[in-house]
Write a structure and sequence with these properties.
The protein is mainly β and about 220 residues long. The chain has one domain: Jelly Rolls, CATH 2.60.120. About 15% of the residues lie in helices and about 45% in strands. The chain is built from two helices and 18 strands. It has a nine-stranded antiparallel sheet with strand order 4-1-6-7-10-13-14-17-18. A nine-stranded mixed sheet has the order 3-2-5-8-9-11-12-15-16, with no helix packed on it. The protein is globular and about 40 Å long.
Length: about 220
């Protein structure tokens, strides 16, 4: 191999090395597509910094919303996340098993997973796991209780003691700290119809920014 061929090969290798991280970063990042009612911040080097609509969000990043803010984040290959007011989360790290940790607040998730993909919302009390496509929402009351519901598809709730419970469309399950997962899920309609609850920001059932107003076709 002459010097020209070796140099051309080196250039090609360098180009691939430069292109791969860029492609990986693009695949493993989300975008803040909507932000209303307050601020969204990310933790960077031990301090919280405000980020605005249109900014990128990386895997594993810690985010929090203001006490009245709602933030919508799209993650290609995973789905859409809606952070409720006064929420703090840590985005998932593994694209094929995207487990997002929720420390406080409420998080709504519409999955768009590839074949065999999995996503979950993890809290100190329970984990809500999703496969395929589903609309699910999880909210917590500090470290005392957590609630998970689904508007479409199915989710599976797992407690710290390993108990599992399937939550089908239109139902929810509430888990109290120190107690096992309930024997069965409950219909969510009575809760959804109440205004002024944490469910108000669930975009599958309620009007966006509608202050708790349900969509006309929310029962479908």
């Amino acid at each position: 191999m002459d010097k020209t061929q070796r140099f051309a090969g080196w250039l090609l290798s360098a180009a691939l090395l430069l292109a791969c991280p860029a492609a990986l970063a693009k695949e493993e990042s989300g975008t803040v597509v909507s932000l209303r009612g307050g601020t969204l911040e990310r933790l960077d080097k031990g301090a919280w910094h405000e980020i605005v609509q249109g900014k990128k969000v990386g895997i594993g990043e810690r985010l929090r919303t203001g006490k009245a803010a709602v933030a919508v984040i799209d993650f290609p290959g995973v789905g859409r996340f809606v952070m409720g007011p006064a929420s703090e989360i840590e985005m998932g790290r593994e694209p094929k098993d995207f487990t997002t940790k929720m420390n406080r607040g409420a998080l709504w998730m519409q999955t768009a997973l590839p074949a065999g993909g999995r996503a979950a919302i993890s809290t100190p009390i329970a984990i809500a796991g999703v496969r395929g496509t589903a609309f699910s929402m999880v909210f917590g009351e500090g470290e005392k209780a957590v609630c998970a519901c689904t508007c479409a598809g199915n989710i599976e709730v797992t407690s710290p003691d390993g108990r599992k419970l399937a939550v089908p469309k239109g139902e929810y399950v509430a888990v109290d700290a120190g107690k096992p997962v309930p024997a069965k899920a409950q219909p969510s309609a009575p809760v959804l119809e109440k205004s002024g609850t944490v469910f108000d920001f669930c975009q599958a059932c309620h009007e966006v920014g509608g202050k708790g107003k349900l969509k006309a076709d929310w029962r479908r």
